[in-house]
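Need residues for this backbone.
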């Protein structure tokens, strides 16, 4: 493990994920163009992205089961080729119905990629580097947002709809070829528990029943909801139509999602490796930071300052690495034979929260615009004041997720005490006792 060949495999797999993120987020850049091209409402065009994410989320558990059985390499290659076909269909779509088919294909290919890459890592690496590499996968992959926000956006507005999407399709073909050349299955880690002889559904129920899996699901939801909805659907329209930024300025601010991800990813990875039982507290710190600045932007009278908007997108970007903490929870609270299915379950969380918010925001924007027109005003679908109201939706969704995460954390602590004899004090108690007695205490998860 950890040899030169391992890093070649890592490079090939991460490149496939990088291109996958590019395809996933490309429609968010084209949202306004799609509204005009297909002559549809905000709710209708949001349906395209929502169905893409619904398919992605729905396939996570089947993909997790499949990757445990057939290995990650073939799924990474297959995912790249399916995404290529989806972007090609979208390029030639004459109406919204065909566009939905294209994005569904993108969602299917995307679904096969990330879980497969995460599942591949223990075959080639071990020790404390694993949680750091999980963060690096997410960090490097999120550079795909820059590709969609800058070169793809510029190509879209200069060359047009079809050329831009056909180029995007070709990059996925390239990713499939690179994965075929560089990626190998490797040796799976030694079993950390008895391999069950029961059927697939029984194994899945067992994985779902583990409090640690549930903790990972809710953690991914609260960390991934806002980055998902902003990167895939509503971040770019908020900048261009809501705030009135031109394309280069909007692309620059949008790329701050990646800056936040790149800066926070290695730091969070190191903290998780150093304090593996403080993961939930670390994630809650990230969430508090996101919604503090989110609230300031929404409450700002008039146009919020440019610097504040930049800060918002940077801090939203930290939610990506925050959500990846959930996969480390899945890895440590599940036996090795169930890592794929557990990762699939966990990965549903952030995308479930994301697509609920994406659809609800589109519905709210349409309702506000309809009320404005009914009152005698001019139609202004993507007005800034409309976004202020619609962007309250993620606050509610993440609040539900925090409640679920805290409940799962209590159950996880209880199981740790029953099975390992580890009694965990709340964070504030641990800090107080540590200062008082000058010795470390077992932290909570």
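Answer:
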């Amino acid at each position: 493990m950890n040899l030169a060949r391992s890093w070649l495999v890592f490079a090939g797999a991460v490149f496939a994920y990088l291109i996958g993120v590019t395809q996933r987020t490309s429609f968010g850049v084209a949202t306004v163009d799609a509204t005009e091209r297909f002559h549809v409402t905000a709710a209708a065009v949001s349906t395209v992205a929502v169905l893409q994410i619904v398919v992605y989320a729905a396939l996570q558990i089947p993909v997790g089961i499949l990757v445990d059985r057939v290995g990650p390499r073939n799924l990474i290659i297959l995912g790249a080729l399916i995404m290529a076909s989806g972007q090609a269909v979208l390029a030639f779509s004459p109406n919204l119905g065909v566009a939905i088919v294209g994005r569904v294909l993108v969602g299917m290919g995307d679904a096969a990629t990330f879980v497969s890459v995460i599942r591949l890592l223990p075959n080639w690496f071990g020790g404390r580097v694993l949680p750091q590499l999980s963060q690096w996968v997410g960090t490097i992959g999120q550079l795909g947002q820059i590709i969609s926000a800058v070169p793809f956006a510029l190509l879209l507005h200069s060359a047009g709809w079809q050329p831009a999407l056909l180029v995007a399709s070709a990059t996925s073909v390239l990713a499939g070829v690179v994965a075929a050349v560089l990626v190998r299955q490797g040796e799976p880690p030694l079993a950390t528990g008895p391999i069950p002889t029961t059927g697939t559904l029984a194994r899945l129920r067992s994985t779902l029943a583990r409090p640690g899996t549930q903790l990972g699901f809710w953690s991914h939801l609260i960390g991934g909801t806002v980055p998902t909805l902003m990167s895939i659907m509503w971040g770019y329209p908020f900048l261009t139509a809501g705030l009135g930024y031109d394309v280069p300025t909007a692309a620059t601010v949008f790329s701050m999602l990646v800056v936040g991800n790149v800066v926070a990813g290695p730091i969070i990875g190191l903290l998780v490796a150093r304090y593996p039982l403080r993961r939930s507290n670390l994630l809650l710190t990230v969430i508090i930071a996101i919604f503090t600045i989110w609230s300031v932007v929404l409450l700002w009278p008039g146009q919020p300052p440019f610097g504040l908007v930049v800060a918002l997108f940077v801090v939203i970007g930290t939610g990506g690495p925050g959500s990846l903490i959930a996969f480390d929870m899945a890895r440590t609270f599940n036996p090795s034979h169930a890592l794929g299915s557990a990762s699939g379950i966990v990965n549903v969380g952030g995308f479930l929260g994301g697509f609920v918010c994406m659809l609800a925001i589109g519905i709210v924007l349409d309702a506000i615009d309809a009320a404005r027109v009914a009152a005698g005003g001019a139609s202004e679908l993507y007005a800034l004041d409309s976004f202020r109201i619609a962007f309250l939706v993620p606050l509610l969704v993440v609040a539900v997720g925090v409640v679920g995460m805290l409940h799962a954390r209590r159950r996880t602590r209880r199981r740790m005490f029953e099975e390992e004899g580890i009694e965990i004090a709340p964070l504030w108690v641990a800090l107080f006792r540590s200062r008082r007695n000058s010795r470390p205490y077992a932290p909570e998860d």
